[in-house]
Structures are given as structure tokens and as C-alpha cells.
Amino acid sequence: MPAPEDRPRRLLLVVDAPSLLHRNHHARAHTQIVDRSGRPAWALHGMLRQILEAIDGFAPDAVIFGLDDRTASVRRDFYPDYKAGRTEKDAQLVEQLDRAGAMLDALGLATLTPPGLEADDVSASAATWAGENGWDCVIITSDRDAFAHISDHTQVLRLINGGISGSPMLNPARLVALYGVAADRYLDFAALRGDASDNLPGVDGIGEKTAATLLTQVGPMSTVWADVDHNAGQAVAATLDSWASENGSRRMGATVVRRLTAAGARERYDFNIRVMQGHDDLDLGITPDVPGTPGLLPLDTHQVSTVVSFLGVEATTALAVRVLSTDPASAASR
Length: 334
Prior knowledge:
CATH class of the largest domain: Alpha Beta
Strand order of the largest sheet: 3-2-1-4-5-6
CATH architecture of the largest domain: 3-Layer(aba) Sandwich
Mean pLDDT: 93
Radius of gyration: 22 Å
Distance between the termini: 8 Å
Shape: elongated
Structural class: alpha/beta
């Protein structure tokens, strides 16, 4: 038996279910797949196929699906215009969103719909849980908010048009390469930049490039605001100007400080932080030492076959039985 330090760490796969359902609804509507009762099933089928591919590739020990509370929102209560401007969801998508939790629960996979919260809060809590319990974590989503949860033990598979196999896996180093900002400062970065999809304007005059430079050269926003409050931003300006001189760029220190001290700038940043920050203290209900509890792999073969076959695609049923009924990679060392 290998020494404990040589054993593969157990892996938690976290799925932003609404994100995948939305993408698959639009990408697969042309298939018009229906289940055996005649209900629309192309988004459910597409999501399940992608997750089966991910499980086949990653061989996780447990899988949990985050779902949005579609009846209440603490963020919308705080900010009534939250996500305002998005087009109304297609009725066939809504119907599949409403059925997703029941299908996943019936399979034996774990789901969590946190009251008043969203799938991203499940992702945030899962990343925290993994770190506290010595697990690795992979979050599957198309939402950039999850980048704030990246760490040495958590990666994000950002689903894009290429599907699971064509999507980038983001770890701390790759996030810096793509966005120029460390994961532990991504929330600061997002709050400065804003998020149009959530109807959250950024700090006026602070775009992505400026925000990344500020956070990389000066430090987290707690450091920036402290200098602004107690030193009129002089250290911030000097650091940015020194960086600009070294890189042959235009001096920007005074301009950035002026924008950070403009009326409403600090309030906008603080507001965005409050709305964007994920809740990381949810009880996931994961009990890895209790075999057979929801979310732990492998799953019951008959149960998997019965549930997936209802979608009416034989190839997917066969794939599900093979993938979901197989011991995870770390099991061989336990």
C-alpha cells in the first residue's frame, strides 16, 4: 500500500447546473430530444452527456450540482436591478431547469439549492470544503465568478463552445496568464471592472487592464484603499508610475488615484463586492465516510440505468452505466 502522502487526493467535482443547462438548451434545441413522457429533454440530456464526459475524464470521488433558488434571491432583495436586462427565459428551458434537481437526485448524485442563493454559492462552499478536508476540487461552469475560487486545490473548467474536451482548465498560473491577476485578487478585479451580465457597473474609468495592473503592482484593494485613506494615494500613484517608467508606458498614477477618489467610486466597489462575493459556508451534506450517501461514486447500476433510460437515448444510458458505476481513481489506493 502506498504511503499516505503518495495516495491520490480525493476529488470533488462541482457542477454549475443552470450554467450548463442554459448552454445546452441553446446549443441542442435543434435536436428536439424529448423524454419518454414527451417532455423537452435536450438541455437535460446535453448537460448529462457533458458531465458524464467530465466524470469519465476526472474520475471524481464525489459530484455535487449547484442549483439556483428560482423562488427567492437575497441579491435581488438587496439590489432589485440585479441581472436586469437579461432576456426572458424560454418556457422549455424553464421547464427543464425545474426538472433538473429531481433527475439528478434520482440518479443518486448530490444537489443543493441554497435558499435565496445561487449555484455559484455552492461552488464557493465546495471549494472551501475541499480545502478544509484535504480534497481537490474541479468546478465546471461558464461563469467567470468562479475564478475567485481558484487555488492550489481548486481548478475551474470554464465551459465554452468546444464542450468539455475543448474548454480551458484554469489553475492559479493560467488565470494570471489570461487575466493578469492572481486568483485571490480576482474578486477585487471583478468589483473594479463590474459585470454587465449581472447589471453591475464598474468603478468609472477603471477597466480590466488598469484593474489588473493596480492589483498586481500595488496589492489587494485593502492595501490600495488604506493608502488612499491615510496617504492621499501617494504610494499607489508612485508605484504605478514606477511600473510605467520601467515598461515604457504612460504615467497613470495620478489618474488612477483620481478615479478611485471620485464621488461614488468607493461605494460602487463596496456594492459590487457585496453582490459578487460567493457564500462559502453552505452545508454541502457531503459525508465521504458514509458509503452510499448522495454524491459519492460509484452509483447503483440499476438506478442509473432506470433514470437515464427515461431520456430515451440508448447510447447515453450505456455511457452513464459505465461511468457512474465505476470506482473513482483514488479508490485503488484506499
